[in-house]
Fold each of these.
Amino acid sequence: MTGGLVQPGLVHLGLLFDGPDDLVASALPTLRSALDGGDEILVAADRAVVRRLREAFGSEARRITFPPPTSLVRSTEPDFLAAVRGWVRPGRRTTVLGQYLPTMSARDCAFGEDAVGVVRSDLPLTLICCCRRDLHPDLVAVLERTHPQMATAIGVVDNPGHRAPATASPTPAALWGEVAARVGVDGLADLAALRRCVAAVAARAGLEGDAVRAAVLAVHEAAVLAVRRGEPDHAHLTLEVRAQPGQAVFSELTGPHGIPVRPGPSGDPLAHLRPFCARAAVHDEAERRAVRVLSTV
Amino acid sequence: MTALLRPGREPSQHTLLVSDAVDQGRRGAASWVEQELSLGSKVYYKGWLPDGGRRDGHWLTGPSGPRGARDALTTGQLEFLDFPTLVERSGATSDGVLAVYRGEVERALDELWPTVAMTQESPELPMADDARLVSEYARWEAGFDDLTHRWPVRMLCQLCVAAESERAVWETVAVHHRDVVDGFWSATADDGHWQPRGDLDAHVARRFGAAVHGALRTAREGEHGPDLHLDLSGVDFMDVACAEILMLAARSAPVDQHVVLHGGPRFLRRLFDAVGRPPSVRESEDAP
């Protein structure tokens, strides 16, 4: 899972614990794998946890950095995401263990966790987010909802309580700043306007040549998927494009929730567009569907 | 239609104008007729008359049509023939259809018109279950090619997708792959190279597939064949659906037939590789 193993992008793990011994037992398999893989490792935990980890790893603990727990806290979500981006090291993976603090707001915490999953999932990071079971139930619920996998004493397991980020507000898309362009489309015959919109924003954001072509193709394919598989057949979609100049273009297509998205031959309905973007995801709610595409410079 | 009127485009000889809806097709056909009238051509128009069978009830030559067309009908520069009469005169055979058209061309030239422009609305031929009709249709369209090569004739065939069966759309586009204008994309053939242009996306993927099929079929029979030389330099956009159709057509071609890629951006090759490029698709020496 870490350090040159299977997943190239973000691995986002939750960890529920009762006390320091429990936390260390659940984190050890993942941290051991990270050490063996040559990851850079940050552990921002309380002193009891740090002491037990130093004991568990012995001399190898020198390869782990132990900043204070509050060092991961930021006052705004964009600052938090910038901090996450700052953990990335060229040519290697970074594993970060952090603890929820009792003073955290459940709403802000959920927003940050969703944002990491949606807009930073291309980064080579393993995040282990730890929440004590006796914290506020809303915080515990956030951890259980926002992590696709859990770190446990027997290793990483899938989290059946995980739910993809909501399409409704607050949406992590807002972290990419103001909407640079918005266009409505009514069917397949209407997609040329959508392509022109993405191309214009992508070029302004600093994408060039094939990178612009790839961004346009990925968003176009997302729209084809949303239009064709919506109900009624040619549903109205809205495209909003946001850009961070020099970094990325974030496109979000929203429309009515229709018939279930059919998986392709690989089991992934977005497999055909993934080669042309950094990240793509479908989010379904009862009434709405959103397809999000992230293209990086 | 805009592509038909684009500055710098060579005058078309035998063009298919594809439209999704009736109104869209009428706008394109009206522009073409107006242009031909302004160039001094004798125009023959064939189409469907509304109930009552009166020419002044037709959308082009009636009160709501363009002034130029109504005036030309009066002066004789424009002649209108309704489809039932055409079927009656031709017997709906290729020889019969071509005899009618040839007669019109000869009469116009005898009257010293410098050029002849001929257009017909979407014919709504029942091709779905009639292989003989498909064969006849292909033969008379080939005869139209011959007319435009031998005389100063420009031909515009109209295809309204909403009015035709899937089979008819497929056969019509395949037959006309050498000169087709369909919204944001078009295609021409020149010197053994087939060149699609513009935006090729899921909305037109089936029609694009029909044109590819027609181009492959013609290449097998042509002097430059059996390989299809595909010039991609005019393609502005191609999506996964069209790329898959192109690669599938190449994969389905006979073993001795290749699709040879010319020009176009490297990104298209990346797209072809992503959807699965078969060995029968190869690069020309001038590839990017």
Amino acid sequence: MNIFELALQNLTSPPVLAFALGLLATAIRADLRLPEAVYQGLSFYLLLGIGIKGGVALRDAEFSEIALPIAGTIALGVAIPLLAFFILGPLTKLPAYEKGALAAHYGSTSLVTFTAALVFLETAQTFVEGYMATLLAVLEIPGIIVGLLLASRGMSRTVNFKESLTEVLTGKSIILLAGGLLLGALTGSAGYSQVEPFFGGLFTGVLTLFLLELGLIAGKRIGDLKKVGIRLVIFGIGFPVIAGTLGITVGLLTGLSVGGATVLGVLSAASSYIAAPAAVRLALPEASPGIYLTSSLAITFPFNLIIGIPLYSVLAELIANGMGI
Amino acid sequence: MKNIERKLVTIVIEQAIESRLIRDLHRIGVKGHTVTKANGSGPHGRRAGEIDGGNVKIETVVSSELRMAIIEHLEQHYLDKYACVVWSSDVTVSREQHF
């Protein structure tokens, strides 16, 4: 398939259409909102489901097969926030704490973007290593630490890393994702078959509902785009492509398939809007949520969801061909 | 029934900061508190915690000395950094040892 067919396939998938419906509903000021408890429940389901499936695959994988991709993912977790911080320097006039806060968000990653990429690749019948959820969990943390470290440089007060780290490590993202991986690895395929109708069969449907809600939330932030300015919009679209390309290259170099490298590209390109905001808010109250949340949720997330995912899959093909893989 | 004068201190703060503030309150000497979810708007508009819940309202009934200590602590560590408002009012309680 060429890039236009891929883009069209992605655009007409139920989760992406539901996201667009959420944006539209907010634009016409419809009073729609998923109840808080349902939203929390759906995010539990997605995190645990992704974790369990990844864990089952992890059990069947050889250590030698996953060691290099994990090492590569940790390196990406350190390199991407550094890159974001230094690109933001000449591009914007933001102070170090704002750049650090943004670096923490772009260094970390997004479960929903990852999940949408898996659904996309499954529809395109592209092979993806089953253990990619492990890399999702690995990439979640280092970016936040590096971002906070960068922000704290040149600050007169000390930044409370311990509290933010505890927040990330005991937050629902890591507990449910890592817990799910462990659960899946212990229970294996036989155990998974018992919960498959719930966590497998219903998965895309739940993702669709969750994306409708994210569309509603992101839609409310779109009005803030005028406040953040064109330079941040350029960053929010341009940086994921750079980070995504880096992720794809690292994926291919560490032995992932083209599908796996696409997913690592998506993970690298995606920015956090759940784990990172909570940690950054505690450690860096000076940094403005109007900048980091708007950029992450209203610019980068829709870009990755609608254009980024098919783009990275094409880039992965091209880079793999160029490298002779 | 005895009528004992106390102060009801009400704090509305973004949810991301809830557990830190509650730890601080108990360290200052607060014996008990009530947390409820809170929605609304103020001069600053929306909250960082919006995606994972908005604000919380923390209420505690304390002596007037403790009320001063709480407000001083908030002024030093919270009011200028976070979306946070505080007010207090006179209340009457019946069990002195509880508050």
